[in-house]
Amino acid sequence: MSPSSTARRFTEDVVRTPLHEKLLGTSKSITEVSELIHRLAGSDLTVLITGESGTGKDIAARLLHKLSPRFGKPFIKVNCPAIPESILESELFGYERGAFTGARTSKPGRFELADRGTIFLDEIAETPCHVQGKLLQVLDGEPFMRIGGTRPINADVRAIAATNMSLEEAVRDGRMREDIYFRLSEVIVHIPPLRERPEDIPLLLDYYIEKYASKFSHKNINKPSPETLGRLISYSWPGNVREIQNIIKRCLIVGKWEEVIDEFFTNKKPTDITIKGKFSPKSRQLKLANRCLQQG
User: Fold this and answer.
1) Cα distance from N-terminal residue to C-terminal residue, the chain
2) What dihedral do alpha carbons 125, 157, 57, 247 form, nearest 10°?
3) What are the distances in angstroms from CA 244 to CA 21, 22, 42, 167?
4) Pick from 126, 136, 119, 135: which is nearest to 167 by CA?
């Protein structure tokens, strides 16, 4: 297969990447995030998405693309720490035949494949410094060259980056160049952790029960009791939305909330069990749980 046909097939696969997910919740914090994403979607500003692991940074990036004029063009995600440092530059910017041992054919990079679309640089803090200079050049709209190439390449790409780390700390530690930090921080969208929006937990539970039921032979489980829901609302969810998904899958397999939840909380640290603040007293947890069940 020729390099051009390989690139075309890869680009088409990326275009078909599911973009149906959404940021779920009615809390003030997640509503403000959704509104900001809608305002930013029509621009080509570089956006840095911050937040803990499992909060939905990937979904936010896909929404920015889906709501933009670039929707229908490639959306290419690059999981920076998943690519070995030795080949990250060639993955991002491509290479020409014979550029190095083993380069038997030319290969376009991710920026080239994302032309007229969006590139999502996930966990950007893990990018090695020797790649950051060339990355800054491309983010500034300047042409780049493949490794071993002589022809400048222009790519019309909207860049979105994400991190669960402090980039300011990475700059202080010398792991990130200051100039690329400022370039990435044109606009920052912060996804709040689940412990800061516990009122969204019942909605998330309903959504993922329905989503995963069909994947488990259409198994169904009853809604959790107010006591069980109160325990879930009071939990700090260090794994955030991803951890809720894991709980739902387990409940669909076992079929009983209480059995799964009892086992789940048995191995948790005391500091994870209760959220500090207004949701910690049991009476308030139950009131919120009952209100959520009545609304459902």
Assistant:
1) 54
2) -110
3) 15, 15, 32, 27
4) 126
* Residue 75, strand partner residues: 118
The DSSP call for residue 193 is P
For the chain, domain boundaries: 3-190, 195-295
Of 101, 98, 144, 96, whose CA–CA distance to 119 is shortest? 144
Instruction: Yes or no: say if 163 and 61 are a contact pair by the CB < 8 Å rule.
Output: no
User: Domain 3-190: which CATH class?
Assistant: alpha beta
- Give yes or no for a contact between 161 and 187, defined as CB atoms under 8 angstroms apart: no
pLDDT band at 277; cut points 50, 70, 90: very low
> Pairing relation of β-strands 118-122 and 75-79?
parallel
Look at phi and psi of residue 192 and say left if phi exceeds 0, alpha if psi is from -120 to 50, else beta. beta
Of the listed ranges 14-18, 72-76, 77-81, 269-273, the one predicted with least confidence: 14-18
195-295: CATH class? mainly alpha
What's the half-sphere exposure (Cβ side, CA atoms, 13 Å) at 173?
10
pLDDT at 51: 96
pLDDT digits (tens, 9 = 90+) for 145-178: 999 988 999 999 999 999 999 999 999 999 999 9
User: What is the phi/psi pair of residue 214, to 5°?
Assistant: -70, -25
**Tens-place pLDDT, residues 187-212:** 999 999 999 999 999 999 988 888 88
Q: Is 103 helix (H, G, I), strand (E, B) or coil?
A: coil
